[in-house]
Automatic annotation (TrEMBL):
Annotated DDE Tnp4 domain residues: 22-165
Name this protein carries in UniProt: DDE Tnp4 domain-containing protein
Pfam families (UniProt xref): DDE_Tnp_4
Keyword vocabulary terms for this entry: Metal-binding
Entry superkingdom: Eukaryota
PANTHER family: DDE TNP4 DOMAIN-CONTAINING PROTEIN
InterPro entries: HARBI1_dom
GO molecular function: metal ion binding
Cofactor(s) required, per the database record: a divalent metal cation
């Protein structure tokens, strides 16, 4: 956590102690014939039946923690956009100022509050990148999930999240990671800088996803 905190502070000096990015992911589900389940999954804000998932992303793009498969009527706003948390979590979830928020009477203090709010807005962008990476890679999450099979939904979501972490660690193509954990002067940077002057065989040798290529074996020559 300390390593992540140092990386975030390097990009956003006014933010201290942060180690990840948290946001909610609302996914569609089918409509239940059970009135209680139907009411629990109906999201009045979106006017649709949904389930809610709260996800924490680390700086390397992996998912640190997640609360998944909650009823869609349990909106994630109390945890992310408008935090009204317990004493245990008080002050640990930072959010930008809302419209018409009261600022300090001192102009200097008001400027500091606005600057910090703008920094938080910028720092929350990685959560959107993480959500886009999830939904972009797993199109099944855009289709309504079976409301009558809560265990199946949990297994599907858990599998998608674990596959997201596996792909992020093995392939390394992730927007959050490229912004917060970029290795300046690394072999990858040298490769990209000299790409225009390399032969095709050299490009293939430096390709970090080459192990996933399917190659045809050469047929034995006949004499």
């Amino acid at each position: 956590m300390e390593f992540y905190s140092e990386k975030i502070s390097a990009c956003h000096p006014s933010i201290a102690g942060a180690f990840g990015f948290l946001d909610g992911l609302s996914l569609p589900v089918s409509t239940s014939s059970n009135p209680e389940i139907e009411q629990a999954t109906y999201n009045g804000w979106l006017h649709l039946h949904r389930i809610t998932n709260v996800i924490v992303f680390a700086l390397d793009g992996c998912i640190l923690s997640a609360r998944i498969n909650a009823p869609g009527s349990w909106h994630n706003a109390p945890d992310t956009a408008f935090p009204r948390t317990s004493e245990e979590l008080a002050g640990k979830i930072k959010t930008p100022l809302k419209d018409r928020a009261a600022l300090g009477n001192d102009p200097v203090q008001a400027d500091e509050q606005l600057a910090y709010s703008n920094t938080i807005t910028s720092a929350r962008q990685p959560a959107e990148w993480g959500m886009r990476a999830l939904q972009g890679a797993y199109g099944r999450l855009r289709m309504p999930l079976d409301i009558t099979n809560p265990i199946g939904r949990w297994v599907l979501l858990d599998t998608c999240f674990r596959l997201h972490n596996l792909r992020t660690r093995l392939i390394g193509i992730n927007q959050i990671r490229s912004v917060y954990m970029r290795k300046w002067g690394s072999k990858d940077d040298h490769f990209i800088h000299n790409l225009h002057s390399m032969m095709f065989s050299d490009i293939r040798n430096n390709d970090r996803v080459k192990c996933f290529y399917l190659e045809l074996a050469l047929a034995p020559s006949r004499t």
